[in-house]
Amino acid sequence: MSTTPLRTAMTPVTRQIRAYFAPVNRVSETPTVFDPGVSGAFPLNSAPAPWVDLGWIENFARWYDTPMDMVRGGAKTLPTGQYRGALEARVEFDFRQWGKLQMALAGGSEHMNVLAPMAGSLSPAPSGGAPAPAIAVLAGSTSGELVLGPGADGAFPAGSLIAVDVDYEQQVGYVGSGIAAAYVNDPAAVGHDPHYVRRVTFSVGRVAEVTATSIVLEQPLLGGAPAAGASAQKVVAFVDREGGSFFQEWSALFVAQEESGGRVCFYYPRLSASKATGKTGREDFLEIAKPLSTISLRASFLALPYVDGNDGQSVVCYRSYFPATMAAVY
């Protein structure tokens, strides 16, 4: 009769993988940290800021392509040790939901907000032509409510999309309040367009309610409370482009929610947009029932290194396992 003890709840079971992204400080290359000791009970339906819930994903796949080789010695050149080659890791998946951030991550370069056009505009452009004037955001505004003053709120009826950020004033470097949205090498390339930052900013939202002096947003602005001097403009669409010199870079957390057994988390401190390897298409058309299909966004990333402060090791990904209650350890 076997005396082997019962090994309970050691097989993680999940339905899908859920994706969460958070900004990297591009100037200092500082990621948003996921500490499993503090964030182990990460609430999937109310992710703590600055993490943003981007929904369930499919076809999640990871590769660790770092080569390993041997050190040999002696008369017979026997292996005496091992070493790792250049670090390289990649991750790919399909977004099933579309939104500002999902499109930016799948596209990989600058992502544009199409600003509502000026009445009678004769300057069409694929990423949006001359826009309607911006409206100043007043003191006292927060990431969830924008104070515009009496009457100004009429420009943004409930249900409309808006972009909120500062004017472009010929600055060089990263632009976008709170989250780097683009990088300007030469102000001449942007010209004298004061609306450029709002064309690319991640500080976008949808108007849920209009009051006498303000507008209330359905979700808080990703970039946080508006910066001093910020203005708002109506957005009619989002557009990304094939090409461009800017690379998106974000921290990412992928969670296999426990259906039974434990939870598994994959944390990438720094992911940068990369060429897809698993599939050639940028989108997939998945049939629901003829003639209806759903469109998914293919996203592919290269993992950039992060130095772990506990021992100074350069790593690209952390895989965490949270065992179920009373599960065997091994």
Notable characteristics:
330 residues, mainly beta, 2 domains, seven-stranded antiparallel beta sheet, six-stranded antiparallel β-barrel
Structure description:
With 330 residues, the protein is mainly beta. The chain has 2 domains: 17-64 and 87-108 and 247-322; 112-240, no CATH class. Helix content is 6%, strand content 39%. The chain contains 4 helices and 21 strands. Strands 6, 7, 8, 9, 12, 13 and 14 form a 7-stranded antiparallel β-sheet that branches. A 6-stranded antiparallel β-barrel has the order 1-2-5-18-16-15. Strands 3-4 form a two-stranded antiparallel ribbon. A hairpin with a 6-residue loop joins strand 15 (249-256) and strand 16. The longest helix has 8 residues, at 100-107.
